[in-house]
Amino acid sequence: MYTRLNRAQPYALALFRIVVGLLFACHGAASIFGVLGGAMGGGSIPAGTWPGWYAAVIQLVGGSLVVLGLGTRIAALVSSGSMAYAYFKVHQPGALFPLQNGGEPSAVYSWVFLLLVFTGPGALALDRLFTSRSAARRAEERAPEPAEPAEPAAPIAA
Fold first, then answer.
1. Do 125 and 89 contact (CB within 8 A), yes or no?
2. In 26-90, where do the E strands start and end?
3. Closest CA to 88 of 77, 73, 78, 98
């Protein structure tokens, strides 16, 4: 059973990455464009509003990159930091625990994206497409040129 689970791990991680990235991108789209119910019950956040609009841009762009598996670790790191900032600056002053201060989504997203920083994108990621091409190109560049056949040594006269 563990062998099957281990073989499926990259695909399960990819599905996890795609679902989390899509949910995160939807938060950003709702806040910026007012779609999917809009920001906090309707409407959109005015452009340039600190910190909400910037957080929404990070959510939309970071979530989209994570869904695609493109620059996953960097996008996840920025997204994790954004959610940690949201938790400690917006939610935590209201109460100590996330359940009390409404900061559960921020706390969970922060840890989920931090996990993706360390695990990477899994299977089905554009990162893998570019990494495999560049790795093949580097290996080709490092390969030594075929040596020319050596000339036979002259017989040694005694």
1. no
2. none
3. 98
How far, in Å, CA of 131 to CA of 33, rounded?
Answer: 34
Structure-token pair, residue 8: 């499926």
The dihedral over CA atoms of 31, 74, 84, 43, expressed in degrees to the nearest 10, equals 0
Backbone angles phi and psi of 31, in degrees to 5: -75, -40
66, two tokens: 């994570």
Question: Per-residue pLDDT for the chain (158 aa), expressed as one digit of tens each?
Answer: 889 999 999 999 999 999 999 999 999 999 888 888 777 777 778 788 888 899 999 999 999 999 999 999 999 999 999 999 999 999 989 898 888 998 999 999 999 999 999 999 999 999 888 776 666 677 677 766 665 666 666 667 65
**Side chain identity, residue 34:** G
Q: pTM of the prediction?
A: 0.78
Q: In whole angstroms, what is the distance from residue 116 CA to residue 93 CA?
A: 27
Pairwise CA distance, residues 154 & 3, whole Å: 60
